[in-house]
Amino acid sequence: MPDNFKSLGEVFRREPAFKNLREVVKSSDVVNDFYKIFPDYEKIALPLKVAKHVLRLRVENSTWRSEMKFREKEIIERINKYYSEERIKKIRFSS
Question: In a 3-state reduction of DSSP, which class is residue 33?
Fold first, then answer.
């Protein structure tokens, strides 16, 4: 193999041209892994998407929305701790 050969993974992780794509993948990871991080929320919350470090969650009703809003800081901290980096800064709730 040539000395300057790079694996696809290395190119994806390091090349500036793929920065936006890396952000999209990180965002979709939060949505995909939400129930791994919060298995108890499976029946009450549905992760919709992440855009600009804001997680959109649909909750079952206004009571749960208030409860989740109360726990927002804890939820954000657990998600960011799970990934060992700041992926979420805010959560938007809808019913």
Answer: helix
